[in-house]
Amino acid sequence: MSGPTKTMAVLTCAALVMTTAYTVALGSSGWLWFGWVVLGVATIGMAASDSAAAAGTPRRPPTGPGAARP
After folding, report:
1. Does the pLDDT value for residue 25 go beyond 80?
2. C-alpha closest to that of 34 among 24, 25, 23, 45
3. Which residues contact 39 (CB under 8 A, 6 or more apart)?
4. Domain ranges of the chain
5. pLDDT, averaged across the chain
6. pTM of the entire structure?
7. Is 32 exposed, middle or buried (0-12, 13-18, 19+ CB in 10 A)?
8. Of 3, 6, 40, 60, which is most buried, counting CB atoms within 10 Å of its CB?
9. Is the pLDDT of residue 42 over 60?
């Protein structure tokens, strides 16, 4: 997982804690939960695209003075 994806995951978890605290203290807000769900889906999308990009990236053969030649 790349740095921006980890940051997004941390922010999503923090938003869940804040949304839950708001709901406990002041009552439920549908828009707040909807916003959190949208943030969660965006985070899942970022994680999925990160893993797909990492899995689909072909490895290049090593180059340079120490690289083996065929």
Report:
1. yes
2. 23
3. 11, 12, 15
4. 3-49
5. 85
6. 0.69
7. middle
8. 40
9. yes
